[in-house]
């Protein structure tokens, strides 16, 4: 290789980035309560404890409700926004699209505090519903970014042919456009679901007395005896995230191939 220093830097960077994740399963199956080497005996009791903790079960239930609702709403809004931005020209288009995509560059803590002030000012009680609103706000730009690619890759001549054959705009969208961009829609739902499930800052500010999974994990870090169970939970979450991202990437590439577009990059 011509650049050994660059190769060494890349390997060191990857090791630094993923070493903490690789340590999760190691300590999740360790019998000791102290996260340190040397390891003790192999055990699965932390996983058993994880599945028999009522508070954790409630947090998982809240997170699933929020993630499913947020991903569906964000993808629905993303479909409309992506369709409008790739097919129509209207006054203020660039500014409107930029405003929608703004949460991608804003610090999440700024978004969370702003939402908290607005919601409390309106007298809205902090529940899972308020967390859903916050997650829709941050997931929608990601959904639009994915769906923009799906709609941009779609051959417009297919829609024009449907119009020539007597189909209305709605029936063309329902029978032609949606099936062709469906892999992008599925990818958008899965990515939004993953983002919402793992999100902490907005949930911390807006959940009120109904904790989500990330906020529950944060609350348990104060208790050393709970750390091994959190390591086991982290192992499960990492595995789920990898599976969901792999499925999302598969559908993204399938959608690009289906519409005859060019792959310009992805998640994996």
TrEMBL record:
PROSITE patterns: ABC_TM1. It comes from the Bacteria. CDD domains: TM_PBP2 (cd06261). One of its GO terms (cellular component) is plasma membrane. Gene3D superfamilies: MetI-like (1.10.3720.10). The keyword Membrane applies. Pfam families: BPD_transp_1. It is found in: Cell membrane. InterPro entries: Bact_Polyamine_Transport, MetI-like, MetI-like_sf. It is a multi-pass membrane protein. Its main location: membrane. Keywords: Cell membrane, Membrane, Transmembrane, Transmembrane helix, Transport. Residues 60-248 form the ABC transmembrane type-1 domain. The chain crosses the membrane at residues 12-39, 59-82, 94-120, 132-154, 175-207, 227-248. GO terms for biological process: transmembrane transport. Belongs to the binding-protein-dependent transport system permease family. CysTW subfamily. This is Spermidine/putrescine ABC transporter. The lineage of its organism: Bacteria, Pseudomonadati, Pseudomonadota, Alphaproteobacteria, Rhodobacterales.
